[in-house]
Amino acid sequence: MTTPALQARDVTMRFGGLTAVRSVDLTVNTGEIVGLIGPNGAGKTTFFNCLTGLYVPTEGTVSYHDKVLPPKPHLVTKAGIARTFQNIRLFANMTVLENVLVGRHTRTKEGLWSALLRGPGFRKAEKASEERAMELLDFIGLAHKRDHLARNLPYGEQRKLEIARALASEPGLLLLDEPTAGMNPQETRATEELVFAIRDKGIAVLVIEHDMRFIFNLCDRVAVLVQGEKLIEGTSEVVQADERVVAAYLGEPFEGAPGDAEAAEVEAAEADAAAAGAAAPVTDAAPADAAETGTAPSTDGDKSAGTTKGEAQ
Ligand SMILES: Nc1ncnc2c1ncn2[C@@H]1O[C@H](COP(=O)(O)OP(=O)(O)OP(=O)(O)O)[C@@H](O)[C@H]1O
Ligand SMILES: [Mg+2]
Question: What residues are in contact with ligand 1 under a 6 Å CB criterion?
Fold first, then answer.
C-alpha cells in the first residue's frame, strides 16, 4: 500500500543569496493526501515549482515512481503530475469546456498540426477528449457552465475549474497550491469532499493550504516548512501537538487578530486580581512565590533567588 509516488530528495532552491528551500525531503505515497503548510514566504510554492520543473532546483532530485524527473514542466505533466496555481491561471476568454480541453492536450496523441488541419484522426480524438472533459466537469460540478467564459465564473468556481483542467491530463499525483484561498466556508467544505473524491479515484494529492481545519481534516500526513526547511512531518495529530509548529506557524497568523484585545484585557484583569489577592486562600505555590519575591532583597542577594525560581516555574 505504501508505494512511493513522488520522492523529493534534498531539494534546495537558492535565488541569489536567498535560500528559499533548503534540503527538503518529501515522499507522497500512492493513495495518500499529504499537506504542506508553513507561514507566508516559507518556500511552499517554490518547492512546488521545483517539483513541477518550473524551477530547476539548485540541488537535489525529484523522482516519480522511481524515475528522476527532468526539470521541464511539460515532461513532468507527461510523467503524471498535474498542478494548480496559487494565482489562478485559466484562459480567461476561453469557455469552461475549452479550458479543460487545453488540459488534455498532453494526453492526446494528435499533434498541433493535426489539430489545426482538423483531419479525421483529430475529429475522433476531439470527440473522445470532449467526452472526457465533460465527465470531469460533471465530477467537479461545473458541467452546466460548460459554455460560460472562465472569466465570468465566481472565484470559487474558477479554482474548481483549475482542478478539472489539472485532472484532464490524467495525473497520478495532483499538486494543489492553496485550493481554498478566497473561498467561503461552504465552498471550502465542498473542496474538501472533492479532494477526498480525487484521492478515491486513485490519485495521490499534495496540498498547500493556510486553512488549518481543512488541512488537518483532510491529510494523512502533514509536513511543515519554516524558512525553507522542513520543521516536522507527521500525522495531523502529531503536527498539531508540536509546540514548534504552534510557535512558528499556528501562533503567528493570529497576532493582532480579532480577539487579541479581549485576551489582553482578560490577562490584565487576572494580573490585577493576582496582585490584589496574593494572600487570598489559594494554597498553590504561586502566591507564596510572589510573597517570597517581595521579601527576597533583604537577604538573598540578586543572583540565586530569581534564577532558581525562574527555572522552576
Ligand atoms: N523567482 C523568485 N526569485 C526570487 N525570490 C523568490 C522567487 N520566488 C520566491 N522567492 C522568494 O522565496 C521565498 C519563498 O517564497 P514562496 O512563494 O515559495 O513562499 P510560500 O511559502 O509559498 O508563501 P505564501 O504562503 O505566501 O504563498 C520568499 O522569500 C520569496 O520572496
Ligand atoms: Mg505560496
Answer: 15, 18, 20, 38, 40-46, 86
Strands 229-234 and 59-64: unpaired
Ligand 1 pocket: which of 44, 84, 227 to mutate (most atoms <8 Å of CB)?
A: 44
The C-alpha R_g of the chain, in whole angstroms, comes to: 26
- Mean pLDDT value across the chain: 83
The full set of domains in the chain, from first to last, is 4-254 (3.40.50.300), 261-312 (no CATH)
Distance separating alpha carbons of residues 138 and 152, to the nearest angstrom:
19
Find the ligand nearest to 249 CA.
1
Residue recorded with cell 527538503: 24
Query: Ligand 1: distance of its center to the CA of 272 in Å?
Result: 44
pTM to 2 decimal places:
0.78
pLDDT in tens, 11-58: 999 999 999 999 999 999 999 999 999 999 999 999 999 999 999 999
Atom of ligand 1 nearest to the CA of 228: 14
Please give the Cα distance from 93 to 151 (Å, whole number). 6
**Nearest atom (ligand 1) to Cα of 46:** 18
Pairing status of strand 204-208 against strand 221-226: unpaired
Residue nearest atom 29 in ligand 1 by C-alpha distance: 41
Give the tens place of pLDDT for each residue, 100-153. Answer: 998 887 666 656 666 667 677 777 778 888 999 999 999 999 999 999 999 999
Q: How far apart are CA 41 and CA 227, in angstroms?
A: 7
